[in-house]
Structure formats: structure tokens, C-alpha cells
Amino acid sequence: MLWSDPENKPPKELRDTQEMLRRLGVLMALAMVVAMVVIGLR
User: Fold this and answer.
1) What's the gap between Cα 29 and its chain centre?
2) 1-42: pLDDT as tens digits
3) How far apart, in Å, are the Cα atoms of 25 and each of 3, 17, 29, 31, 38?
4) Which residues make Cβ contacts (< 8 Å) with residue 18, sequence separation at least 6?
5) How many whole angstroms separate alpha carbon 36 and alpha carbon 42?
6) Whose CA is closest to 10, among 2, 1, 19?
7) What pLDDT is recorded for position 22?
8) Residues 6+ apart with CB under 8 A from 10
9) Cα angle vertex 38, ends 36, 40, to 5°?
């Protein structure tokens, strides 16, 4: 690997987007669990 090769890191915007999508996925999973519990209690 040459010293002039760019680093293999995604740009900051892409990393921020991936982080936001990860959080959104966790929130969606929690919302689904809560919805199942509410539906189950009816």
C-alpha cells in the first residue's frame, strides 16, 4: 500500500447517516415490541 493511497474510511456524512439509520432501526424494533405488548394486553 502506497503512502499516497487515500484512507479506506467513509466520509463523515456517510458515517453520520449510517449511525442515524442504526438508531432508527433500534427505535423501530422497540416500537414493534411495545406495539405487540399493547396489542397483547387488549
Assistant:
1) 11
2) 556 666 777 789 999 999 999 999 999 999 999 999 999 987
3) 38, 12, 6, 10, 20
4) 10
5) 10
6) 19
7) 97
8) 18
9) 65
C-alpha cell at 36: 405487540
pTM exceeds 0.90, yes or no: no
Which grid cell is 34?
411495545
For 2, the grid coordinates are 502506497
Cell numbers given for 13 = 456524512
Residue 37 grid cell: 405488548
Closest CA to 31 of 7, 39, 1: 39
Residue whose C-alpha cell reads 487515500 in the numeric block: 6
